[in-house]
Write a structure and sequence with these properties.
The chain is of the alpha+beta class. It has 3 helices and 5 strands. The chain has a 5-stranded antiparallel sheet. Strand 2 (about 80-90) and strand 3 form a beta hairpin. Helix 2 crosses helix 3. The longest helix has 19 residues, at about 50-70. The termini are far apart. The relative contact order is 0.26. The model has no long low-confidence stretch (mean pLDDT about 90).
Length: about 160
């Protein structure tokens, strides 16, 4: 039996959402750049590339907007708002990326929030690697979502 994503002929399809009601939806996702205290200090202060934190925010916005072009099962949706927040912790050598996406549409915004969080962290990594080759992106996850048929979701706090 074929899934709702793949027809009996084995061809991948986008799920039909045209009959679903439009509702307000919101999703919040996070990711982390994990590096050294020195690298975080450079990112916060700015580098020869400019202001890495601002660049990461723009990259996160672009990630949200480009999600349907990157992920074949995502519908283009009417995003009504996006916030990309960065919380550097120089002592711990990490930066938390938090992306909130809102829309009024027939399908959710979880993938947009996750993509935005991942792309923003990758933008930070692009600059951090000059100071720490072992820098890494970790913990990309959905924190919460509201709206839609499946209802609300809130992730358990990390252990």
């Amino acid at each position: 039996m074929a899934s709702d994503q793949t027809g009996a002929d084995g061809v991948t399809r986008i799920v039909e959402v045209g009959v679903k009601p439009e509702t307000d939806r919101e999703a919040v996702a996070e990711s982390w750049l994990v590096t050294t205290a020195e690298a975080v200090a450079h990112l916060v202060a700015g580098t020869k590339k400019g202001a890495p934190l601002e660049s990461a925010k723009v990259a996160g916005l672009i990630g949200v907007k480009e999600t349907p072009r990157l992920l074949p099962h995502c519908h283009p949706i009417r995003v009504t708002g996006v916030e990309v927040d960065l919380a550097p912790d120089p002592q711990a050598g990490r930066i938390r990326v938090l992306v909130t996406v809102r829309a009024h549409d027939r399908t959710g915004v979880e993938m947009e929030a996750l993509t935005g969080a991942a792309v923003a962290a990758l933008s930070l990594y692009d600059t951090a690697k000059a100071f720490d080759r072992a820098a890494r992106v970790e913990g990309v996850r959905l924190l919460s979502k509201t709206g839609g048929k499946s209802g609300d979701y809130r992730a358990d706090p990390p252990a």
